[in-house]
Amino acid sequence: MSLAKPDAPIRTHSKTPADLAITPRDVRFGRGKTPAKWWAKGDPIATAVYNALSVTFPKGEAYFCESVKAHRDGTPPRLEAEINAFVKQEVIHSREHVALNRHVADHYDLKPLEDHVDAALALTKGRPPIANLAATMALEHYTAILAHELLADPRHLDGSDPEIAALWRWHAIEEIEHKGVAFDTWMHATRTWSRWRRWKVKSLVMLITTKRFIDGRWKGITELLRQDGLTGWRVKLAVLRYLFVSPGMARKVFAAWASYFLPGFHPWNHDDRELIKLADSDYQDAILPRAKQAAAAA
What InterPro entries would the database entry show (predicted)? Predict the structure, then answer.
């Protein structure tokens, strides 16, 4: 059931498609199953990359929700509906990554990774709400461009545990769907700012966020590999090869990352909803029964 009505009026400054529907898909993955330790193609490096990212999501997405909700009051009705749908999607994402992280914790001590997430979030305490929104907007751009690449090239997850691969594709669908919400909230919250001030702050925050994001994920990946007994420069070189050469997700998203700094940037300058249509059919059987139940109960 869509919470963001496609027939609502278009907002000033927003390039979000007028017919966009943000749909929370309440789907559960991998319950009652025990995936292999190296669930990503049997590759410890690929598995570490995804696991290190997954560990950040439960607390990270709670932070995203609070950062956006802090600016919800007074937003236009369509944007308010999109914020509500965004929050519902992120809450379900957190639930599913908590479940995945429990499987990961069967094989690894996740405390070093969780401590790093806690330390990063601690830096946000006491900051102005607009600063937290700017950081959320930057990180949402990261999730959107990674989601696009994940769906655009099925080879990233081919050969992986089917349930976990399905979780990542489902997550990617919804990250694309709500990729403009934090940005449009920022545009509304800073509507009295000059274009120069807005660009300067969002660009500076993106650079700071990028440094912290790369540093945090690198430490997480190498820590998980260390626990596998994989250390040394050859292992680090293999990680860099995975990220930048084959399959090379970091290399492939660089241009999209850099577009954030262009004047006139908006996440929906590139409408990639066709990727959602291609991937979304896998989940219709799970979505429609719930929608029917909700309609019957209404």
Answer: UCP07580 (IPR016516)
Contact 29, 96 (CB under 8 A): yes
Is 79 within a domain?
Answer: yes
Q: Into how many domains does the chain fold?
A: 1
The mean pLDDT value for 44-62 works out to 97
CA 42 – CA 206 distance, rounded (Å): 34
Q: Would you state the structure tokens that stand for residue 81, as one six-digit string?
A: 């509906």
Question: How high is the pLDDT of residue 283?
Answer: 52
pLDDT category at 12 given cuts 50, 70, 90 is very low
d(CA 239, CA 225): 10
Contacts of 92 (CB under 8 A, 6+ apart): 24, 25, 26, 27
Q: Is 203 domain-assigned? A: yes
Q: Where are the alpha helices (DSSP H) in 43-128?
A: 44-69, 77-105, 111-122
* Cα 123 to Cα 34: distance, rounded to the nearest angstrom: 36
* pTM of the full structure: 0.89
Is the model's pLDDT at 156 over the cut of 70?
Answer: yes
- Assign 18 to helix, strand or coil: coil
How is 77-98 classified by DSSP, letter by letter?
A: HHHHHHHHHHHHHHHHHHHHHH
Q: Cα separation of 171 and 168, whole Å?
A: 5
Residue 103: give its domain's CATH number: 1.10.620
The domain of 57 spans 44-290
